[in-house]
Amino acid sequence: MSDNSSVVARLRKLISEGHYPPDERIAELQVAEELGVSRTPVRLAFRTLEQEGLLVRVKSRGFKVRHFTEQDIVCAIEVRSVLEGLAARRLAEQGISPQVLTALEQCLDDGQAVLANGHLNHDDVATWARVNSRFHGLIVRATQSDVIADALARNNHLPFASSDSLLVDSDHLEREYQKLVVAQQHHVLIVQALRGGEGSRAEMLMREHAYINIRYGRLFGLAYPLADVSR
Amino acid sequence: MSDNSSVVARLRKLISEGHYPPDERIAELQVAEELGVSRTPVRLAFRTLEQEGLLVRVKSRGFKVRHFTEQDIVCAIEVRSVLEGLAARRLAEQGISPQVLTALEQCLDDGQAVLANGHLNHDDVATWARVNSRFHGLIVRATQSDVIADALARNNHLPFASSDSLLVDSDHLEREYQKLVVAQQHHVLIVQALRGGEGSRAEMLMREHAYINIRYGRLFGLAYPLADVSR
DNA sequence: GGCGTGTACTTTGGATCCAATAAGAAAATA
DNA sequence: TATTTTCTTATTGGATCCAAAGTACACGCC
Questions:
Q1: Is A52 in Cβ contact with B51 (below 8 Å)?
Q2: Does residue A22 reach within 7 angstroms of strand C, measured from its CB?
Q3: What pLDDT shows up at residue A218?
Q4: pLDDT (tens digit, 9 = 90+) per residue, A110-166?
Q5: Chain C nucleotides near the protein (CB, 7 A)
Q6: What's the CA angle centered on B72, arms B70 and B77, to 5 degrees?
Q7: Where do the coiled-coil regions begin and end (chains A, B) (predicted)?
Q8: CATH architecture of structural domain B5-65
Q9: What is d(CA A152, CA A159) in angstroms, rounded to the nearest whole number?
């Protein structure tokens, strides 16, 4: 807590929760008082958040909260799509280690276990989120490339760009179950391609996989306050 | 100059020139004195540079200069490759405006003019760099997506990831000329694909185009001090 | 002579102070 | 009454100060 990175994290949260509305200027002093710290850590955090893409610099008068359109969200998912695709291709082509392969297969088993009941409950959703996060993280880290990992991490700071954004719609659990079944199938095929060293296929599958929330039409109606979204 | 962004720019330059050696800790006070400013703007700049990937945070003791391996440089180019590929695909699929098309064709003409002599001189190289930069910038901006543009911009902060890094080898001007001829051909084909709305083809061409410095074997022997590079 | 503890120093993180500047409000003039 | 000019105020950028933490060195003890 003595570290200013917590200020970054707290601000990230507050922004994506809409506490600071999009497109509105955000003052250092006000934030500092609300967080109970001085201006200094806030100023530092602003620079970080700016680079993460959550704040934009206004001509010569501080920062304002970035507003995202539906288009932006789609783009962020597309960016993740090509970057994770790249990671999968690299991993397949450079060869996957037995350790990583074992870990990925464990993810497949764990994922299968979640879906075994034929329906979803709350714990299932949480478990799947963990397994899914582990799966994606494993592939990226296995490429051993900090450059790719960083590019992905930065993109994932944008709200709903991350593969962790499950967007589970508790009103349509049936449909959500179908989505996870498809996701699980994707995972199986991706591991298959990785094991077989099929770079292009791994990339293609991973790219398609990233679109799952778009394909399943659960992209909008988000908690995050989009700028000009009506529906 | 009164803006601290100049500190960021100056530091970026100093780092990529090797004034601060890779993998070595970088102290706020020392930098502040060298730049003739106080610690505050340096501290702010460090946060920006960290997000840009030029500095890495050391456990709880400030920052050190990031070191890049050959592998990292290749990865950065691959990242640019897939991102510019994405931009090209989007642009082709969403349809390219007549204005942008005209501007791109102007780039093609200008590029052709540079190569018309059959050989390169110093001015030619500079001109081509400008035209090339304009060409790539046009395509990215035409997608109207800040998210993609930002992802690219961040990646381009890594040394030699940017398409502006021509890496012209004045000792082998003949080979460099051949490289630019190929690049020009790529540009022509890319515009063709964009005009025809062929998204996949545009993406594929753009991705290949990004690899030109790798294909032409002029990737290493760089000014930037790589960590463990012998050749 | 080696190892451990303690102290001094270096360096970062946070708070406050001061100056520059831009925005906003009020007043004066046309 | 509208417009322009000036003054006040809010807010950022830079500098300095203080506290906390970590490192290194030295001294002492085993």
A1: yes
A2: no
A3: 56
A4: 999 989 888 888 788 889 889 999 999 999 999 999 999 999 999 988 877 777 765
A5: 11-17, 20-23
A6: 100
A7: none
A8: Orthogonal Bundle (1.10)
A9: 13
How many Å apart are CA A5 and CA A27, to the nearest integer? 19
Q: Which two tokens stand for residue A74?
A: 């789609």
Compute φ and ψ for B25, nearest 5 degrees.
-65, 150
Contacts of B155 (CB under 8 A, 6+ apart): A147, A151, B76, B79, B80, B83, B161
- Go through chain B and tell me how many residues it has: 231
Q: Report yes or no for ipTM above 0.90.
A: no
- Search chain A and give the residue with CA nearest B41: A44
Q: Which of the 33-62 residues on chain B come under 7 Å of nucleic strand C at their beta carbon?
A: 39-40, 43, 60-62
CA of B37: nearest nucleotide by C1' is: D14
The per-residue pLDDT for range B76-127, each reduced to its tens digit, is: 999 999 999 999 999 999 999 999 999 999 999 999 998 988 888 878 888 9
Find residue B56's DSSP bridge partners: B64
Q: What residue ranges do the domains of chain B occupy?
A: 5-65, 70-215
- Copy the structure tokens of residue A106: 């464990």
- DSSP-based three-state secondary structure for A32: helix
The position carrying tokens 């000014």 is B223
CATH superfamily ID and name for A70-215: GntR ligand-binding domain-like (1.20.120.530)
Q: Answer whether B34's CB lies under 8 Å from B75's CB.
A: no
CA/C1' separation A28–D11 (Å): 8
* Residue B186 to residue B180: CA distance in whole angstroms: 10
C1' nearest to CA of A59: which nucleotide? Answer: C22
Determine which of B1, B5, B11, B51 to mutate to test the interface with A (most A C-beta atoms within 10 Å): B51
Contact indicator for A194, A138 with CB cutoff of 8 Å: no
